[in-house]
Amino acid sequence: MNVAFLNENTLGHTSYLPRFAEELLRRPELGVTPRVLDALPLPPHLRRLGDTSIRGLRKFGLDFHGTRWRVAASRHLREQLDDLRRREPVDALVVNTQSMGLALGGLRPELPVFVALDATFQQLARSAWFAPNAPSRWLQPLTLRGLLRRERALFARTTKFLPWSEPVADSLRRDYAVRPERISVLPPSLTPPMGREDRPPNARPQLLFLGGDFFRKGGPLLRECHERFFADRCDLHLVTQSDIPSGPGVFVHRGVKAGSEAWQRRWREADVFVFPSRLETFGIVLLEALAFEVPVVASDAGAARSILGEGRFGKLLPALTPEALKQALEEVLANPAQARERAQAGREQFERNFDLATNTAKLAGWLLAAQKRA
Q: Where are the domains of the chain?
């Protein structure tokens, strides 16, 4: 069975579909051959539509940049899909996210279409993603009208929905009246690493932050907290793509690729992973923390509450302030045995719900069943 994977290769979406595709290629007995198509970079004829913005209007959403980028990226994927289908048969599509499926109109109705998504547009409309300020919130019904219309057209064509988390599944049922039997949660999934190694008992504790966008992921809050309360006793390691300076007890790691030796070293040496993100839809990095059995302190953003089991597998911050973060870190550092218990329970949660081999087999089963019905 040939399946086209239409991939939104931006930010945390980059590795979602490719991990499943790599596992399917490694396990041909599952009966699914993936063909990964990436949305970016945009080709020259779509770059002006997707990449340009109008000075003075973007902050209000009135240049429709978000809509235009999504339309351009989905057109690029549709062009690649049409070219692929001219060369070989395609039995089904898996699209991540719905933004990448906006140009799928006109496909033959019997072709199964699976849509994975970390948030519905209705969820994003209730957050600051689409409207970060008061004027843009006031104008939001106008600026989102076309995008919501395209989303509903795609959803009407969708064979099966693959939300990343239960809150997204709930939005599909509540906001879009999608029948429960058309929904199966398929979270981001990883191959579990080996268990943690004990660090020397006299080593300075290491606080770890990973986030491509240092500012949106709450990096400034963490750095302020470290400078005020922990600089004399903890090292802070920041893995980010943002151009920020190092400092006393602060180590900045740029260009570190997920899965690399340098990346694994940061996880294995970390005593606490801190993720005070202000705006999130899921938080894949929290899965990595669970997999490496690193104690977690995180904001209650995106799917953090679900991933961390309502706080059973990590501490959820009651507020995004230096004082609240200080208190949470103090509790973790002062009670290492309790922190280890939480981390070990988190690893068990990871193995139950986020194991790549298990979830890839589920995806293959759903695809094969849809092919039989088509």
A: 2-189+355-373, 206-353
